[in-house]
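Holo prediction — flavin-adenine dinucleotide.
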Amino acid sequence: MASHRDVAIIGAGLSGLVLALSLHQQNIQSTVYELRPAPLDIGGAITVSPNALQIIDKLGIYESVLSEGYPAEAFHFRSQDDKPFDAYEIGSVEKYGYPGLRVYRRTVIKALLGKCAEKNIKIVFGKKFKQIISESETGVTWEFDDGTVGEADTLVGTDGIHSRVRSYLYPDIEPKFMNVMAIAATIKTSQVEMPEDYSLPVTIMSRTHGAYILAPNFSDGSELVIVKQRRIEEHDREGWKNILADKEGSVDFLRQGVEDFPEVVRQAVSAVTPDSVSIWPFYQVPKMERWTSIGGRVSILGDAAHAIPPSSGQGANQVFEDAYTYALVRGQCDRDSLASVLPKWQRGRQERIDRLIILAAQMNVRRLPESTQSEFCSEAVGTEDFNMEWLFKPDLDKMFQEWLAV
Ligand SMILES: Cc1cc2nc3c(=O)[nH]c(=O)nc-3n(C[C@H](O)[C@H](O)[C@H](O)COP(=O)(O)OP(=O)(O)OC[C@H]3O[C@@H](n4cnc5c(N)ncnc54)[C@H](O)[C@@H]3O)c2cc1C
């Protein structure tokens, strides 16, 4: 029999671990099941913004994450002839209480796992969720790939963009490949003669050859990641395996057209070696009417539930908000009211995500010539600084009360 309020969490990525710790703060017990035999070490560095750092702080791991990351307050843009022409905020200690932080995903996962261990939160590795067997008034049962069966009061799928838990809610939804992937490689920053006052992270744009991103990693900025996007059609599993394995091909792609970019990019790209290459294919899931089953006992959140454009740099950050606010719902609402309360939570979360999607589109369009801006974005696009307070300094506890009051 499932214990009164225990939650099964499927997936020990960022959303699963943040959820487990946030539930613990609400005195709710959970167990996390992860298909991999050990913590996942993928994804390179991410940029964590103040809205997520405030949650990291509430979970008690801010200092350790901060000490391993590269703090930055703006993302800069330069033209092909190396002239700065735009910048947008990614954090500000003065305005939002936190900087933006470039930090390896594995560093955040390690800090979250350490905190889970301290709180005696059980994480079971090597357990692959297969399917929900039944959902009733007393709980949920499900099956793992190894044929064993689990049981809990409720189950949350935090199993990423290719979520299996999602197929219980929407059997026919498949993530759609956006025909773009990011190719990234790291070098030592010392391998580049960085001009003085060259603000990082930076995107160097070109009308003909796309753009290069140069972004520092580690607290001393000693590593530099170089990223470029490549248009590519969808592949089957075997095809993707070949693309991932073809590191030389990725290095060649990074080198294509580099002669038209400033010296700093040319030096960075020429220092790249195949062993440091990583690839991030961009997938999207369509907007879903429900993130929770009719019975209220099975939910999805994080990448499993919504698509955040990679250009917004908010995928991971919104995952933190999802998990933290879901735990608030669980802490303050009776489980019998979940079926009616969780849709309100979803509406509140979706409104924020929709606003973010508009912001990302506006920021992309701002960098196009003025004459073509209206073709790509119906919202007014100004040259003034975007007001980021709503995004970077949310009072999530108050916001959550407002969502529920509607
Ligand atoms: C290279 C790269 C760079 C990125 N940069 C940024 C950035 O700068 N800023 C930003 O905000 N976001 C960024 N993102 C996006 C961000 O990393 C994701 O949005 C975020 O990690 C999603 O977290 P998640 O926990 O929902 O899903 P995931 O991280 O995908 O975790 C899902 C977990 O579930 C497990 N799992 C899957 N299926 C099952 C199953 N059947 N049973 C059990 N376990 C299962 C997986 O093994 C995994 O551990 C980046 C992503 C990549 C790959």
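READOUT: The two ends are 35 Å apart (CA to CA).
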